[in-house]
From TrEMBL, chain A:
The gene is nuoK. It catalyses: a quinone + NADH + 5 H(+)(in) = a quinol + NAD(+) + 4 H(+)(out). It comes from the Bacteria. This is NADH-quinone oxidoreductase subunit K. NDH-1 is composed of 14 different subunits. Subunits NuoA, H, J, K, L, M, N constitute the membrane sector of the complex.
Length: 137, 187
């Protein structure tokens, strides 16, 4: 088999995942795109391992390790997303701007800023502040 | 030696006379890429997770075509079996809308598209230019059968394997700590 086929497929899958990471708003969809990127790397590792006929089979061993690390990553990532959703009531990555450096970055265009104030007003009881501090700590 | 074998193999194969396994690889690859594209562009969140199943299953078939049999089944077990189920659980627990959600894509979609197309162009150009005359020799015994995998994994890669189990334990503990409700502080 020509080596260019798996290599090109892996490159295209990686770029698809890259688009998803940059363009998606829901955090879980971002995690799905990260999975696509990791799978593209796995395909590259397997193809080059089969091509090189390595006696250590480094490519396949690293693919197994990548799969296991991706499973751990998705578990931790979903736990973080669920914690954020419990504290903020939203899993949109565009709205998590507490650590933005400039004031200009905190103002969102359009009606989203109003929505943020709305959700914060609901949760701006003293308990809400404590929760927020806990989330940022 | 590998290069010599590849060169000898390349004497009787070319772009214009693809073998059956290459045709199968390209067809499954087109299906995989299409499913991945639908995954990152669809507006229905649950459908994105289900199309991700198609993309990951297609990749498992690609591993089978590359004679990496054990990795193909690990892919089916871990990705299709557990990761996608976890993602679906996450979608349900964060109360994702079931129908079409108009704000699934963020505002910088066109910048993201530009970055992705530029990266795809550069990567495909470099890869095709580098591996234009390189062939994989798929004949002979399978390189990723379960026996071979067990041999190299437990003969050469034992220490990373054990370290990986520690990492999985740490991830387990971390996920439990992160998702635990702090009833003591909230009451």
């Amino acid at each position: 088999m020509h080596l260019a086929y798996p290599a090109v497929l892996a490159a295209l899958l990686f770029c698809t995942g890259l688009y998803g990471v940059l363009a998606r708003r829901n955090a879980i969809l971002v995690l799905m795109s990260v999975e696509l990127m990791l799978n593209a790397v796995n395909l590259n590792l397997v193809a080059f391992d089969v091509w090189l006929r390595d006696t250590l089979h480094s490519g396949q061993a690293l693919t197994l390790f990548t799969i296991a690390i991706a499973a751990a990553e998705i578990g931790i990532g979903l736990a973080i997303v669920l914690a954020v959703h419990r504290n903020r009531g939203s899993s949109d990555v565009d709205r998590l701007r507490d650590t933005a450096e400039t004031d200009a970055a905190e103002t969102l265009p359009g009606d989203e800023a109003d929505e943020i104030h709305g959700t914060e007003d609901q949760a701006t009881a003293p308990a809400g502040k404590a929760k927020k501090a806990e989330a940022t700590a | 030696m590998t290069l010599a074998a590849a060169a000898a193999h390349s004497a009787h194969s070319g772009f214009l006379s693809p073998t059956g396994i290459e045709i199968a690889f390209v067809l499954v690859g087109i299906a995989t890429l299409g499913a991945a594209l639908v995954t990152v562009t669809t507006k229905q969140l649950v459908h994105a997770a289900l199309w991700l199943v198609v993309a990951l299953g297609g990749l498992a078939v690609e591993y089978l075509l590359l004679t990496a049999e054990f990795i193909a089944w690990v892919q089916v077990l871990i990705y299709v079996g557990s990761v996608v189920v976890l993602l679906l659980f996450g979608l349900m627990l964060t109360k994702a809308p079931i129908g079409r959600s108009p704000d699934a894509d963020s505002g910088n979609r066109w910048a993201a598209l530009g970055v992705a197309v530029a990266a795809a162009g550069a990567l495909v150009w470099v890869v095709v230019d580098a591996f234009r005359t390189t062939w994989i020799d798929l004949d002979g015994p399978a390189q990723g059968s379960t026996e071979v995998t067990g041999t190299f994994l437990f003969r050469h890669w034992v220490l990373p394997f054990e370290a990986l189990s520690v990492l999985l334990l740490a991830a387990l503990v971390g996920a439990i700590v992160l998702s635990r409700k702090r009833s003591k502080e909230q009451s």
